[in-house]
Amino acid sequence: MLNLKNPDLLRKHAYINGQWIDSDSGETLDVINPASGETVATIASCGADETRRAIEGANEAWPEWRDLTVKERAKILRDWYNLIVDNADDLAKILTAEQGKPLAEARTEILYGANYLEWFAEEAKRAYGDVIAPPSKDKRIVVIKQPVGVTASITPWNFPSAMIARKVAPALAAGCTFVAKPASETPLSALAMAVLAEQAGVPKGVFSVVVGKSSRAIGKEMTTNPLVRKFTFTGSTAVGKQLQAQCAETIKKTSMELGGNAPFIVFDDADIDEAVKGAIVCKYRNAGQTCVCANRILVQESVFDVFAEKFSAAVNALKLGNGMEEGVDVGPMINPGAVNDVRALVEDAISKGAKNLNEGGPSELGECFYTPTVVSGVDDTMKLFREEIFGPIAPLYKFSSEEEAIQIANDTEFGLASYFYARDIGRIWRVAEGLEYGMVGINEGIISNEMAPFGGIKQSGTGREGSKYGIDDYLEIKYLCMGGI
Ligand SMILES: NC(=O)C1=CN([C@@H]2O[C@H](COP(=O)(O)OP(=O)(O)OC[C@H]3O[C@@H](n4cnc5c(N)ncnc54)[C@H](OP(=O)(O)O)[C@@H]3O)[C@@H](O)[C@H]2O)C=CC1
Ligand SMILES: O=C(O)[C@H](O)CS(=O)(=O)O
């Protein structure tokens, strides 16, 4: 069905301790193509027992993986990177089939994720310790860094490849072992990564992929098993809070990449055409299903009309369709429930006085399709303002002053990504420093890359992924005090 050059990449079993297995219960789950409703694959659906075996296997494999030199681990990660790049076209087809995003976006995601493997293969060599000035003549102080140990990970459906790569890369580079649970709606990309990990020489037990519709049971095992020393999660804030609480009993190190409510501010000194381009990619990438999408578009009143007109025209030019087709800009949402959620948000706004500028809504293309929509006349009484839209809806807000824009932007419990377009250098510094977010795009709508620290503050999470900071989450600091010198 997918016409893969390498059909071996499409797997129907879980990958645990180097074995491709059925679930203990024989249970299976169907992976559905959101564009067509067709079943892409029927795969093993595992539970807590298989998860426990994967964790135990990861613990057994840890000493040998930990004791490799960083150069030996780096070579395996780089070989894995090369295999992913060589298979990018097939991996993109698998990703689009299970998640729906346009093929070009899927390929970009595959390479974006692979870039973390390349990056951390090198960063591991720079995990330096310290020699500290001795407190007395008879002592010497040294600080070394060592891998945390067995890591467990749960990731969401919206970036089924890159979200795992962004975690497994620093973990394995640091000398940790890794058990991944992808979202049950999009497991195939993770299993394809495991095929290539095996080929790259990642030893049995170092990287396992547990798939199952009983995410609660799998997560319970991951967050309470004492062998797991680090738990990393990407997903909604609500689930992140629950999982972080479950980790408390065994005091695991945790990193949480959670929800967002990104402001996208257009000031009166912005280049309006550039701001429109930035807003389009920032809002409608992955059909608006990213945690860093523009969730509130704030436009200064003197340029509101010209921006709204140009932006609406650009939105209406976007092509909605099956992500496998040439020229499609926006694919389906992940499932019919997601369509209902965004429709309810638009209906709430309209009921409180907002206007559906381009009459966007559910599409006859299929039950997972929603046409890119622009809503104006929006205010903070509407759910669109407070909730993460996670869909192709662009709400436009009008503001008058710089201070008001910053106040509106910060009026949320989230603090992940934020964006603004302006050209006055004083304004750029004032606004960049005033926004309470982990990341700020300035005259730029796409800010994610492996060399930068991705992450949020407030209830958008803890920790950073990527950059020179990203490996710290997978290392422990050990202080050696030598006496009797
Ligand atoms: N900050 C960031 O980098 C990102 C944040 N997100 C946020 O995630 C949300 C969208 O993704 P979505 O998948 O719906 O998020 P969810 O939080 O619902 O699911 C994320 C993952 O958690 C699993 N899960 C859900 N409930 C539990 C549970 N009780 N115990 C263990 N695992 C559980 C899911 O498994 P299953 O699906 O199989 O049930 C999935 O693998 C948005 O809020 C978005 O902002 C998404 C991506 C990146
Ligand atoms: O899951 C997400 O939303 C991603 O973190 C967005 S990005 O890293 O691809 O920008």
Automatic annotation (TrEMBL):
Ranges where the Aldehyde dehydrogenase domain occurs: 20-479
UniProt KW Oxidoreductase keyword: yes
Active site per database record: 257
Pfam families noted in UniProt: Aldedh (PF00171)
Annotated Gene3D superfamilies: Aldehyde Dehydrogenase, Chain A, domain 1, Aldehyde Dehydrogenase, Chain A, domain 2
Coiled coil segments of this chain: none
Signal peptide: none
Annotated keywords: Oxidoreductase
Record flagged with keyword Methyltransferase: no
PANTHER family (UniProt xref): SUCCINATE-SEMIALDEHYDE DEHYDROGENASE, MITOCHONDRIAL
Family per record: Belongs to the aldehyde dehydrogenase family.
Protein name: NAD-dependent succinate-semialdehyde dehydrogenase
